[in-house]
């Protein structure tokens, strides 16, 4: 159990203009497809938070807290290359074809002398990371989404330049990989990828229903993730409505689903309530299939939503419209190591420091081609 045990403070249940019919152009309308530059093997999701007409300007004020290490996680990352798996699938492409990706065994990758992260990030390029999908290069845009304030401006355009700064499933799931490697063997918590409780943006099905790799995180068959049968807490990122990230903290013994939202709203709470209600029978069915309830004293789960309450800390609220993914990663890391998530200063500068710290941790996973580095 975390050092700051939550209290049972549950939330009550709540109840174009038409074309000219081809008269001017007999050719059929072209189907808009995403640029190859930003395509990813992960499930494509929209920007994490919708951009309003006016964006909040960045503050340039400094304080003594701005230079603090925002990811002060004790010894959680004392070893740069702790052995572990890279579980990297999160779903499907728009084609409807489901793909299964293999893990990378960090003990099999080769590394060379690389330039420093501060030099690399000025003009990033495609590299391999052992916390990414086996055989896949991490695209340049991975870094521009994470630390756009550090990268040199591009001379060429992309389909949606406003996506710079929003985290996608690529960063969220690679971050989960780093966290699971720091987990003590006897810890009563685990983490899970974004596909665990997320809904596909097109067919409205839960991604986990067709994702055997994430299912393996539930029963321990996907290393190094322990079986949910042997832990009390599961921390995960959740994409809500296709445009916003929140933090999920599942209390398995008491069937309570805590959600921490960095942009609190009543409408999102209702959406989350409906999403978790629909997810409950899905996850119960998968857990039953994987033997979770066999010999266990836990009954079938009937998850109750607790929204931004019950843990004794104030959930940070983002000052702009793109920091939800960064705050989610930060919160999960704090929960994993038992630190009370307290933000020294509510500023965009603080979250920029978080992005930089995350980038350094990702870059420590740099390696050569991972194509043949799977587990035996």
Count up the domains: 1
Give the uncertain stretches in residue-range form. Answer: 1-70, 72-99
CATH fold call: Adenoviral Proteinase, Chain
In CATH terms, what is the architecture? 3-Layer(aba) Sandwich
- How much beta, percentage-wise? 5-15%
Helix content: 10-25%
Give the radius of gyration: 21 Å
Structural class: alpha/beta
Write the layout of secondary structure elements.
Layout: H1 117-120, E1 128-129, H2 140-146, H3 169-181, E2 189-191, H4 212-219, E3 233-240, E4 244-251, E5 256-260, H5 266-289, E6 304-307, H6 324-336, H7 348-363, E7 366-367
Parallel strand pairs: 2-3, 5-6
Antiparallel strand pairs: 1-7, 3-4, 4-5
What do you see in this structure?
The protein is an alpha/beta fold and 376 residues long. It has one domain (74-367): Adenoviral Proteinase, Chain. The chain is built from 7 helices and 7 strands. The strands form 2 sheets. It has a 5-stranded mixed beta sheet with strand order 2-3-4-5-6, sandwiched between helices. It is globular.
